[in-house]
Amino acid sequence: xxxxxxxxxxxxxxxxxxxxxxxxxxxxxGVEGAVYWLGEGVIAKVWDGRPPEDLNLTRQVxxxxxxxxxxxSTPEILMVEEHEGTVVTYERELTGSPLRPDSAVRPxxxxxxxxxxxxxxxxxxxxxxxxxTEAMRRLKVQGDDRPxxxxxxxxxxxxxxxxxxxxxxxxxxxxxxxxxxxxxxxRAVQALKALPDTSVTVVHGDLVPPNxxxxxAGRPVAVLDFGFFTTAxxxxxxxxxxxxxxxxxxxxxxxxxxxxxxxxAAELRYSQETLALYQTAYALATYDLFSSDGGDGHFRxxxxxxxxxxx
Length: 311
Known about the structure:
InterPro entries: Aminoglycoside_PTrfase, Kinase-like_dom_sf. This is Phosphotransferase family protein. The chain is an alpha+beta fold. It folds into two domains: 83 residues, Phosphorylase Kinase, domain 1, CATH 3.30.200.20; 212 residues, Aminoglycoside 3'-phosphotransferase, Chain: A, domain 2, CATH 3.90.1200.10. The chain contains ten helices and ten strands. The chain has a five-stranded antiparallel beta sheet with strand order 1-2-3-5-4, covered by helices on one side. A hairpin with a 2-residue loop joins strand 2 and strand 3. Helix 6 crosses helix 9, helix 7 packs antiparallel against helix 8 and helix 9 runs antiparallel to helix 10. The longest helix is centred in the middle third of the chain and has 21 residues. The radius of gyration is 19 Å and the shape is globular.
């Protein structure tokens, strides 16, 4: 599998040392950039190709979230700078340990523990109390060329438009792996537009297990890495995507998606059909975000999800 994560380099460690952070060390790396621990309660993220104005908007979104009481911490950008054309953000270090490793690193076992599901429900319920703001509506989701809400007053309509745009980006590639893709896109778009109005709250959009940190008792103490599909939207969308991405690559992934979808529908009173529709829409909107050649694991995960969906 091709790895599209950014790489840590000695040059950045030297750069942070010159800035006074002599204890700097690599912390994590993802598609958007590489993260360094600097000490003194600060981390730095070296972004890959993201313009400063988007980060300033993200900074406002973080502030909008922080205005509301939550049972866990969320990111705070302390400073933004640019070094040789690369944007660097300095952020408050968040505590806790990942809820569990990414399923590509260590797949979960068959049984979902109550501690893990309780933590996810705590996060979903808490985020659903934060109203969507104008700054959240101005965010672009990864891979798209405009703010998700531009030209729309309803989240389902905005999401339908994202699906249509994504289908035109590399639809031929996806169609080679998903039978009747054109019909599936049409059905999904029509079903999204037919959804009723809902409350609009913050959507993290990427609550994979490493982005939820817990304490020794398993209680959520931090939620990290807003930005991949962060927007203002239907809280049911958040629940749907969380159910889908909890286990993307393990041998029991399909069982886990179904079990979490049923659990979230029952506990949070969402329609299972709506959750399944949102999962289909997410796969149609994000299949090409890591590569345009289908050579990454996320593409294959989207294909698998779309093949088993009936939308």
